[in-house]
């Protein structure tokens, strides 16, 4: 009862074609294909950046002092 034979699927396909028509099924197929293609393109664009991002500079220039940096060791010595 759980499995269908090829004849069952052919009858279902025939009924679907009779209800919707071949032109409507063709439009649905092309819309579905376009959606899948758009999804794949979106996944490619989101995963790999086109322009490489340069690494950020971690330290400051020698001799320059940053006013927002707090020296924790100096604070503990007081």
UniProtKB/TrEMBL annotation:
The chain crosses the membrane at residues 6-22. It is found in: Cell membrane. PANTHER family: SEC-INDEPENDENT PROTEIN TRANSLOCASE PROTEIN TATA (PTHR42982). It is a single-pass membrane protein. The Tat system comprises two distinct complexes: a TatABC complex, containing multiple copies of TatA, TatB and TatC subunits, and a separate TatA complex, containing only TatA subunits. Substrates initially bind to the TatABC complex, which probably triggers association of the separate TatA complex to form the active translocon. InterPro entries: TatA/B/E, TatA/E. Residues 46-78 are annotated as: Disordered. HAMAP family: TatA_E (MF_00236). Residues 68-78 have a biased composition (Basic and acidic residues). This is Sec-independent protein translocase protein TatA. It comes from the Bacteria. It holds the Pfam family TatA_B_E. The keyword Protein transport applies.
């Amino acid at each position: 009862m759980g499995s269908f034979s090829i004849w069952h699927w052919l009858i279902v396909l025939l009924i679907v074609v009779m209800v919707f028509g071949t032109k409507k099924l063709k439009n649905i197929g092309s819309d579905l294909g376009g959606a899948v293609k758009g999804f794949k393109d979106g996944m490619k664009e989101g995963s790999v950046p086109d322009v490489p991002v340069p690494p950020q500079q971690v330290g400051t220039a020698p001799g320059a002092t940053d006013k927002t940096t707090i020296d924790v060791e100096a604070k503990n010595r007081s």
